[in-house]
Amino acid sequence: MASIPCITYQPFTSKSKSLTSPLSSSNLASGFLGIRKKVGWLRLNSVIGPSNGSRATCWFRFGKNGVDAEGAGIYGSQSRNDFDRDDVEQYFNYMGMLAVEGTYAKMEDLLSQNIHPVDILLLLAATEGDKPKIEELLRAGAQYDVKDADGRTALDRASDEIKDFILNFSVQRA
C-alpha cells in the first residue's frame, strides 16, 4: 500500500456584528464532520475530519494485491501507441536536454523523420543511459534498431553497459 500524508486544518473567519466579549456567547458544537462553532465574534468553520489540526496517514491500495504499480496502470502498462509527440517533448525537457542544446532543433529533427515517438524516446533514453525509462519503453514495444537521420540506432548511441542492458532485456522478453 502507498501512504500519503494528509493534514487537516480548520479555517478561521471573523464575522463581527457587535463588539461583544468572546466569552459572552459560547455555543460550541462538535468539531468533527463540518459542524459550525460560534464563540462570540469568532466563527470557526470546520472541515470534514479532525478539527484540531492533527496529522493523519491515508492508505490507498493500488493494483490487484495492493502494491502492483504495473497492474494499477501507473508504470509499465503503456503500449507503443500510448506515446506521442508530447511525451517526447516532456522527456526532452525533463532530462535537461533543452538546457544543454539550447533549442528544440534536435527533438524536432527526430520528430520530422517519421519515427514513432516511442522509438525516439528510446533513442534519447539510450543516449542518456536512463535504464528505468529504457525498460519502460522496451516493455511498451519500442524498437532498438530504428535509425535516426545519422543512421544511428539506440544501440549505437548507448554506452556498452546500456547496450548490454537493452540486448539482455530484449532476449528475456523473446
TrEMBL record:
State the source organism's domain of life: Eukaryota
The reply on keyword Endoplasmic reticulum is: no
Q: Which UniProt keywords apply?
A: ANK repeat, Chloroplast, Plastid, Protein transport, Transit peptide, Transport
GO annotations under biological process? Answer: granum assembly; intracellular protein transport
A GO-annotated cellular component: chloroplast stroma
Topology of the protein relative to the lipid bilayer: Peripheral membrane protein
Predominant cellular place of this UniProt entry's protein: membrane
The record ties this protein, via Gene3D superfamilies, to:
Ankyrin repeat-containing domain
Subcellular location(s) of the protein: Cell membrane; Plastid, Chloroplast
**InterPro entries per UniProt:** Ankyrin_rpt-contain_sf (IPR036770), LTD-like (IPR044242)
Q: Which residues cross the membrane?
A: none
Coiled-coil annotation reads: none
> In UniProt terms, what function does this protein have?
Involved in the import of light-harvesting complex proteins (LHCP) and subsequent routing of these proteins to the chloroplast signal recognition particle (SRP) pathway.
UniProt protein name: Protein LHCP TRANSLOCATION DEFECT
Q: Which organism is it from?
A: Lupinus albus
